[in-house]
Write a structure and sequence with these properties.
By secondary structure, this protein is of the alpha/beta class. It contains nine helices and 15 strands. The protein folds into two domains: about 30 residues; about 250 residues, Metallo-beta-lactamase, Chain A (4-Layer Sandwich). An eight-stranded mixed beta sheet has the order 6-5-4-3-2-1-14-15, covered by helices on one side. Strands 7-8-9-10-11-12-13 form a seven-stranded mixed beta sheet.
């Protein structure tokens, strides 16, 4: 029986062409989406790259614990600097922290020109605080000159029960500026920039009835993890009275009491302070033979590094809050 031939229907060809077009459209759509995704990805990458700051664009700042008040300055370096001034047989230290300044003692009257010049050369026109550790002229002598060079915010001195011409000149200069004189109590404190200043002594003023040096103000400055102890001319009796209070007096740097006398910076006191460094302010070939050899042996036995104004001139100590460094200017 002869087989039948079937003829393709016209609709079958159109169906195949339609399917081919659909397939082509799908591939075109796929490639279009692929290209568009790639373009969007590149744009996102470039935009993110443009907005990401480089290391040069980033400024890392550390917020101070006590912001400086001198906001008009464009930049204030966060550091503490103490200048132990070579005033001969006397004491004078200029403390600066983040644009704030404090003067502790002013040396002898002969140091007046030097104190005035130092403040002028450094451009210091205002002292936040001025401290007279006690009225003896080798500590109070140049303070009136400091008040001719700069104004003062606050002033401190002990109720010592004795005075002298240099001390009276200092108090007269304070009156001219209408600055009250305050006798601090142990535990009183204030901030100098980010540095905390605490008054520790005198604890018992009756000790000064026999030895006037035992009316000396003792204060401690804490800056970050570094600390500094100033003892004026405090002798062993006042040191012991402070130790009896159980106050923490550990300090990185000790300003030796009474210019390195054997009657100050006693063994028990040094063991409580545990200083790494000791600064002695005294004159070369002074008649008191300061610093005394026995006191230097105490320091040497404890491996304490010693700086002396009679040998090295001005001694500059700087702290970044973690470490201290020293430089000398002779």
């Amino acid at each position: 029986m002869a087989s039948k031939k079937t003829r393709a229907r016209p609709s079958d060809g159109r169906s195949r062409r339609f399917q081919q077009k659909q397939t082509e459209m799908k591939w075109r759509l796929f490639f279009s989406l692929l290209v568009m995704g790639a373009v969007i990805g590149v744009m996102v990458f470039l935009r993110a790259r443009m907005q990401t700051p480089t290391l040069a664009d980033v400024q890392i700042t550390k917020e101070p614990s006590a912001p400086p008040a001198m906001a008009d300055e464009a930049y204030i370096e966060q550091s503490l600097e103490i200048r132990f001034l070579d005033v001969g047989e006397g004491d004078a230290a200029l403390v600066s922290c983040e644009g704030h300044h404090m003067l502790i003692d002013g040396g002898r009257p002969e140091s007046s020109d030097m104190i005035y010049t130092v403040l002028k050369d450094l451009g210091i026109t205002h002292l936040d605080s001025i401290v007279c550790t006690h009225p003896h002229e080798d500590h109070a002598g140049g303070l009136a000159a400091a008040l001719r060079a700069a104004t003062a915010g606050t002033a401190y001195a002990p109720e010592a029960g004795y005075s002298g011409r240099s001390y009276e000149n200092f108090t007269d200069a304070l009156k001219e500026q209408s600055v009250p004189l305050t006798a601090p109590s142990p535990g009183d404190r204030f901030f100098l920039g980010s540095a905390e200043v605490t008054f520790l002594a005198p604890v018992d003023l009756s000790l000064a009835e026999e030895i006037e040096n035992n009316a000396s103000i003792i204060l401690r400055i804490v800056y970050g993890n570094t600390s500094f102890l100033f003892t004026g001319d405090a002798e062993s009796a006042e040191e012991l009275s402070l130790l009896d209070t159980k106050t923490d007096i550990r300090s990185t740097v000790l300003k030796a009491g009474h210019h390195g006398s054997f009657s100050s910076s006693t063994d028990v006191f040094l063991d409580a302070v545990k200083p790494e460094y000791c600064v002695i302010s005294c004159a070369a070939d002074n008649p008191y033979e300061h610093p005394h050899e026995v006191m230097l042996r105490r320091l040497s036995n404890r491996n304490i590094t010693v700086y002396r104004t009679d040998l090295q001139g001005d001694i500059i100590c700087r702290s970044d809050g973690e470490t201290v460094t020293f430089s000398t200017q002779r």
